[in-house]
Task: structure prediction
Amino acid sequence: MTEVVHIKDRKEVIHELKFSPDGSLLAVGSNDGLVDIYAIAQRYKKVGECCRSASFITHLDWSVDSRFLQTNDGAGERLFYRMPAGKLVPKEEAKGIHWMTWTGVIGPEVNGIWHKYSTITNMNSVDANYSSAVLVTGAKFKKYIGHSAHVTNVRWSNDLQWVISTGGADHAVFQWRFLPEGVMNGVLEPLLQVFSGWYPQRVTLTPTAESRTRMCQTSQSLTQTLNRKLRPATNVR
Result:
């Protein structure tokens, strides 16, 4: 492998980056609170900048036509920009935009992922499966047991049959099999509930054999660590 281009426009950590659906632009979000836009055909020349966020950038999503970008930041704000210049788009004008991906955790479209009394730091990631009208989330709350620590990120596979999740302190990567509502072990069961529109249906995620092995290894490692740390105290007279 050879280096194509070397760019250093920001001092802080790069938190998120995504190519536009048409492959012409790259959006790079940093902890400086800025999103830099680069033109691929011009050897990653910087052609725009999104600079209205008050905090570090956490999530980015492109529109289907590559003309718009939406951002989430650490202050819990969701903003929209016109590409490639990075001009701010009013929220009212952004309502009709169709998004290629949905990985942001902020907005009425994903209100259902938030637990009561949760804060912006409780939900780390989300990814939408449009064809099945479901969302998968990575959070500090546990729903499907596997990771021994909070989940830092989740993504659907290209064929939308699998979910990949990454853990925090456990340093683990899990692969989950997606079973739509009514399908268990490959057998169609009667649907208990039917949803329409954008509202997500109930989903079942089952860990693969490789992930189960990793779970056991992680559990054994944690147990050994705890056994070393939790030694019986000696009596002091």
DSSP finds two helices and 16 strands in the chain. The longest strand covers residues 123-129. Confidence is low (pLDDT under 50) at residues 187-204, 225-237.
